[in-house]
Design brief:
Radius of gyration: 17 Å
CATH topology of the largest domain: Rossmann fold
Strand order of the largest sheet: 8-7-6-9-10-12-11
CATH class of the largest domain: Alpha Beta
Largest sheet: 7 strands, mixed
Structural class: alpha/beta
Number of domains: 2
Order of helices and strands: HEEHEEEHEHEHEEHEEE
Length: 234
Protein backbone atom coordinates (compact mmCIF):
# COMPACT_ATOMS: atom_id res chain seq x y z
CA UNK A 1 0.00 0.00 0.00
CA UNK A 2 2.88 2.39 0.82
CA UNK A 3 4.43 1.83 -2.62
CA UNK A 4 1.11 2.60 -4.30
CA UNK A 5 0.83 5.81 -2.26
CA UNK A 6 4.36 6.78 -3.30
CA UNK A 7 3.37 6.30 -6.95
CA UNK A 8 0.69 8.94 -6.45
CA UNK A 9 2.95 11.34 -4.54
CA UNK A 10 6.06 10.87 -6.68
CA UNK A 11 4.87 9.98 -10.21
CA UNK A 12 8.25 11.02 -11.58
CA UNK A 13 9.88 8.13 -9.74
CA UNK A 14 11.41 7.31 -6.38
CA UNK A 15 14.17 5.14 -4.98
CA UNK A 16 13.50 1.85 -3.22
CA UNK A 17 16.11 0.03 -1.11
CA UNK A 18 15.79 -3.09 1.04
CA UNK A 19 17.43 -3.19 4.47
CA UNK A 20 16.72 -6.66 5.81
CA UNK A 21 13.01 -6.78 6.61
CA UNK A 22 12.69 -3.01 6.11
CA UNK A 23 12.09 -1.24 2.81
CA UNK A 24 13.19 2.36 2.39
CA UNK A 25 11.44 4.61 -0.12
CA UNK A 26 13.02 7.96 -1.00
CA UNK A 27 11.69 10.90 -3.00
CA UNK A 28 13.42 14.11 -4.05
CA UNK A 29 12.61 17.69 -4.93
CA UNK A 30 8.94 18.65 -5.17
CA UNK A 31 7.90 15.04 -4.69
CA UNK A 32 9.72 14.99 -1.33
CA UNK A 33 7.61 17.93 -0.17
CA UNK A 34 4.42 16.07 -1.12
CA UNK A 35 5.60 12.95 0.70
CA UNK A 36 6.40 14.99 3.81
CA UNK A 37 2.92 16.53 3.69
CA UNK A 38 1.34 13.07 3.59
CA UNK A 39 3.77 11.54 6.09
CA UNK A 40 4.84 14.34 8.46
CA UNK A 41 7.02 11.95 10.51
CA UNK A 42 9.11 10.89 7.51
CA UNK A 43 12.86 11.31 7.83
CA UNK A 44 14.32 14.30 5.96
CA UNK A 45 17.99 14.14 4.97
CA UNK A 46 20.36 16.29 2.97
CA UNK A 47 21.57 14.69 -0.25
CA UNK A 48 24.87 14.93 -2.05
CA UNK A 49 25.28 17.29 -5.01
CA UNK A 50 24.19 15.73 -8.29
CA UNK A 51 21.21 13.88 -6.82
CA UNK A 52 19.17 14.93 -9.86
CA UNK A 53 21.08 12.42 -12.00
CA UNK A 54 21.22 9.56 -9.49
CA UNK A 55 18.19 7.94 -11.09
CA UNK A 56 20.41 6.95 -14.00
CA UNK A 57 22.16 4.44 -11.74
CA UNK A 58 18.85 2.63 -11.31
CA UNK A 59 17.70 2.81 -14.94
CA UNK A 60 18.84 -0.59 -16.24
CA UNK A 61 17.60 -2.43 -19.33
CA UNK A 62 15.16 -5.31 -18.93
CA UNK A 63 14.08 -8.07 -21.29
CA UNK A 64 10.43 -9.16 -21.54
CA UNK A 65 10.10 -11.85 -24.18
CA UNK A 66 11.21 -10.33 -27.51
CA UNK A 67 11.19 -6.81 -26.03
CA UNK A 68 14.30 -5.00 -24.77
CA UNK A 69 13.44 -1.94 -22.68
CA UNK A 70 16.31 0.35 -21.77
CA UNK A 71 17.82 3.85 -21.68
CA UNK A 72 19.63 5.48 -24.59
CA UNK A 73 23.04 4.99 -22.96
CA UNK A 74 22.70 1.18 -23.03
CA UNK A 75 23.12 -1.08 -26.08
CA UNK A 76 20.04 -3.19 -27.01
CA UNK A 77 20.30 -6.94 -27.47
CA UNK A 78 20.90 -7.69 -31.13
CA UNK A 79 17.95 -10.06 -31.49
CA UNK A 80 15.43 -7.96 -29.56
CA UNK A 81 12.68 -5.49 -30.39
CA UNK A 82 14.28 -2.45 -28.78
CA UNK A 83 12.21 0.14 -26.91
CA UNK A 84 14.58 2.96 -25.95
CA UNK A 85 13.15 5.05 -23.11
CA UNK A 86 14.51 8.15 -21.44
CA UNK A 87 11.92 8.92 -18.75
CA UNK A 88 12.98 12.54 -18.35
CA UNK A 89 10.51 14.06 -15.90
CA UNK A 90 7.86 11.38 -16.54
CA UNK A 91 7.22 8.06 -14.80
CA UNK A 92 8.10 4.85 -16.60
CA UNK A 93 11.45 3.20 -17.28
CA UNK A 94 10.20 -0.30 -18.04
CA UNK A 95 11.96 -1.88 -15.07
CA UNK A 96 9.14 -1.53 -12.56
CA UNK A 97 7.17 -4.70 -11.89
CA UNK A 98 3.86 -3.15 -12.97
CA UNK A 99 5.29 -2.13 -16.35
CA UNK A 100 6.78 -5.56 -16.90
CA UNK A 101 3.48 -7.24 -16.07
CA UNK A 102 1.59 -5.01 -18.50
CA UNK A 103 4.10 -5.78 -21.24
CA UNK A 104 3.75 -9.52 -20.60
CA UNK A 105 0.00 -9.23 -21.12
CA UNK A 106 0.49 -6.98 -24.15
CA UNK A 107 2.63 -9.62 -25.85
CA UNK A 108 -0.37 -11.95 -25.86
CA UNK A 109 -2.74 -9.50 -27.57
CA UNK A 110 -3.54 -9.46 -31.26
CA UNK A 111 -2.89 -6.25 -33.23
CA UNK A 112 -5.41 -3.46 -33.01
CA UNK A 113 -5.91 0.10 -31.83
CA UNK A 114 -4.55 0.97 -28.38
CA UNK A 115 -5.32 3.65 -25.79
CA UNK A 116 -2.63 4.19 -23.12
CA UNK A 117 -4.21 6.03 -20.16
CA UNK A 118 -1.65 7.81 -17.97
CA UNK A 119 1.12 7.14 -20.47
CA UNK A 120 4.00 8.72 -18.51
CA UNK A 121 7.20 8.25 -20.51
CA UNK A 122 5.24 6.42 -23.22
CA UNK A 123 6.94 3.06 -22.68
CA UNK A 124 3.74 1.00 -23.03
CA UNK A 125 2.43 2.99 -26.00
CA UNK A 126 5.77 2.76 -27.80
CA UNK A 127 6.05 -0.97 -27.11
CA UNK A 128 2.53 -1.43 -28.50
CA UNK A 129 3.48 0.43 -31.68
CA UNK A 130 6.68 -1.61 -32.01
CA UNK A 131 4.62 -4.81 -31.72
CA UNK A 132 2.41 -3.77 -34.63
CA UNK A 133 -0.57 -2.24 -32.84
CA UNK A 134 -2.13 0.87 -34.26
CA UNK A 135 -3.26 3.50 -34.16
CA UNK A 136 -1.85 4.13 -30.67
CA UNK A 137 -3.21 7.00 -28.59
CA UNK A 138 -1.38 8.00 -25.40
CA UNK A 139 -2.97 10.38 -22.90
CA UNK A 140 -1.77 11.95 -19.65
CA UNK A 141 -2.79 14.98 -17.60
CA UNK A 142 0.89 16.00 -17.21
CA UNK A 143 2.25 18.08 -20.10
CA UNK A 144 5.81 16.97 -19.24
CA UNK A 145 4.74 13.35 -19.73
CA UNK A 146 3.29 14.13 -23.16
CA UNK A 147 6.48 15.91 -24.23
CA UNK A 148 8.57 12.98 -23.00
CA UNK A 149 6.35 10.38 -24.70
CA UNK A 150 6.54 12.25 -28.02
CA UNK A 151 10.33 12.53 -27.77
CA UNK A 152 10.70 8.83 -26.96
CA UNK A 153 8.40 7.85 -29.82
CA UNK A 154 10.55 9.86 -32.22
CA UNK A 155 13.73 8.18 -30.98
CA UNK A 156 12.10 4.78 -31.54
CA UNK A 157 10.84 5.70 -35.01
CA UNK A 158 7.17 5.03 -34.24
CA UNK A 159 4.05 7.16 -34.43
CA UNK A 160 1.83 7.62 -31.40
CA UNK A 161 -0.88 10.21 -30.91
CA UNK A 162 0.18 11.68 -27.55
CA UNK A 163 -2.21 14.23 -26.11
CA UNK A 164 -2.77 15.99 -22.80
CA UNK A 165 -6.08 14.83 -21.33
CA UNK A 166 -7.48 14.45 -17.83
CA UNK A 167 -8.89 10.92 -17.95
CA UNK A 168 -10.95 11.52 -14.83
CA UNK A 169 -13.01 14.28 -16.47
CA UNK A 170 -12.79 14.13 -20.27
CA UNK A 171 -14.27 11.52 -22.65
CA UNK A 172 -11.74 8.87 -23.62
CA UNK A 173 -11.01 7.87 -27.23
CA UNK A 174 -12.40 4.54 -28.42
CA UNK A 175 -9.90 1.70 -28.95
CA UNK A 176 -9.69 -2.08 -29.14
CA UNK A 177 -7.36 -2.27 -26.13
CA UNK A 178 -6.75 0.06 -23.19
CA UNK A 179 -3.57 0.14 -21.11
CA UNK A 180 -3.70 1.75 -17.66
CA UNK A 181 -0.66 1.37 -15.44
CA UNK A 182 -1.58 4.01 -12.88
CA UNK A 183 -2.98 3.21 -9.41
CA UNK A 184 -5.99 1.41 -7.95
CA UNK A 185 -8.30 4.39 -7.48
CA UNK A 186 -7.85 5.92 -10.96
CA UNK A 187 -8.03 2.46 -12.54
CA UNK A 188 -11.42 1.81 -10.93
CA UNK A 189 -12.56 5.32 -11.89
CA UNK A 190 -12.19 4.24 -15.53
CA UNK A 191 -14.93 1.66 -15.08
CA UNK A 192 -17.87 2.33 -17.39
CA UNK A 193 -15.93 5.06 -19.23
CA UNK A 194 -13.67 2.92 -21.39
CA UNK A 195 -15.00 2.20 -24.88
CA UNK A 196 -12.76 -0.82 -25.45
CA UNK A 197 -13.04 -4.56 -25.89
CA UNK A 198 -10.09 -5.34 -23.59
CA UNK A 199 -8.08 -3.58 -20.92
CA UNK A 200 -4.75 -4.26 -19.22
CA UNK A 201 -4.48 -2.53 -15.86
CA UNK A 202 -1.83 -2.28 -13.14
CA UNK A 203 -0.23 0.08 -10.63
CA UNK A 204 -1.63 -1.66 -7.53
CA UNK A 205 -0.77 -4.44 -5.14
CA UNK A 206 -1.62 -8.15 -5.19
CA UNK A 207 -4.18 -7.65 -2.42
CA UNK A 208 -6.13 -5.18 -4.55
CA UNK A 209 -9.03 -6.43 -6.66
CA UNK A 210 -10.08 -3.69 -9.09
CA UNK A 211 -13.50 -3.74 -10.70
CA UNK A 212 -14.25 -2.17 -14.10
CA UNK A 213 -17.86 -1.59 -15.07
CA UNK A 214 -18.83 -3.49 -18.22
CA UNK A 215 -15.61 -5.53 -18.23
CA UNK A 216 -14.81 -8.84 -16.55
CA UNK A 217 -11.39 -9.94 -15.38
CA UNK A 218 -10.05 -12.88 -17.38
CA UNK A 219 -6.42 -12.98 -16.27
CA UNK A 220 -3.99 -11.87 -13.58
CA UNK A 221 -0.20 -11.71 -13.30
CA UNK A 222 1.82 -10.96 -10.15
CA UNK A 223 5.42 -9.90 -9.51
CA UNK A 224 7.20 -8.59 -6.40
CA UNK A 225 3.92 -7.92 -4.61
CA UNK A 226 2.40 -6.02 -7.54
CA UNK A 227 -0.43 -7.19 -9.80
CA UNK A 228 -1.75 -6.63 -13.32
CA UNK A 229 -5.10 -7.71 -14.71
CA UNK A 230 -6.60 -8.42 -18.11
CA UNK A 231 -10.23 -7.41 -18.58
CA UNK A 232 -12.57 -8.22 -21.48
CA UNK A 233 -15.95 -6.85 -22.50
CA UNK A 234 -18.78 -8.84 -20.93
Amino acid sequence: MLRARFLELAPGGFEEAEHGVRVELAAYGEAAARVLGAFPHAVVSDVEPGWEERWRDFHRPVRIGPLWIGPPWEVPDGNAIAVVVDPGRAFGTGAHATTRLCLEFLLGQGPGSVLDVGCGSGVLAIAAAKLGHGPVIAVDFDEAAIETAKANAAVNGVEIDARRLDASERPLPRADLALANIALEPVEALGGRLEVERAITSGYLVADQPQLGGLRRTGRRELDGWAADLFERR
